Predict the 3D structure of the following.
Amino acid sequence: MSLLSNRRVHLLVQPTAVRASLWRGWPKSSKVAEQVRDGGIAAAGDVLAALAGQAPVAGASLHVELADALVHFDVASGDFAGKSAHQLSLFASACVAELLGEQAKDCTVRWQLQRDERHLLLCATPNAVISALADAAIAQRLQLASLSPSFAAQWNRHARGRWPDAAVFAVASTNNTTIACVRHGVITTMSAGPGSSAGVDARRAAALSSVIGDAPLDLHVDRLLAGLGADGEQSLVYLLVTAAKPQPALSKRWRIVSTEPTLAADPAPDSARARLGRRWKNGA
């Protein structure tokens, strides 16, 4: 591993704020500087400039994690076995065009064929977001090494090893929760739901829970499972990844894992098994 790879900048982009941190060392790294700015993607350049003023970052690799609210997810099903990458790219782009309409032409489409070869994960990222990040990286002489939605980053970290036969995997932020139904390690359905509760959101969630009896996330998941005919399935495992305090009325079926320890996790070496977010391919 080169000396340059011992320095990495992690950039977490949320709709209303950005956080940049500089990490040094390998295989175990430590955080040496951090900056936070309000303003979302528009503040990416400012927060990286502030970080560069705090510690040298030129030549470091830049790893960007985008809040799921900034991208669009979907899952397409079909018989994809034997299809070429070009055919899958055309199919992915067509699916996103049907989902987003005219907005699709302003997005970059990435896709991943899952191991059952019957479910194609789709992710559409606005080109304006990608351009803003590229410009911010160039301004500080950073090497843009990876760009991944929060859901993909968390799935990579939690889906290693054996996965339950049937599960609900949710990644929550303040204003958005991405929910996936998983069968034998394959994501078969995705949906966006209410975000986790923090600050004002927590008070709103508590007030809503006092009226309807269940947390909004539980209600959304129950509706999703009912639509799939899986609402009565007893073997389901529920995993919620969140940095915020869980909603007051969230059911006890959830295993809750904090995002805090994983945000600082070292990226896996290049020789490691390719995972979601790194093996997605660009659409046509």
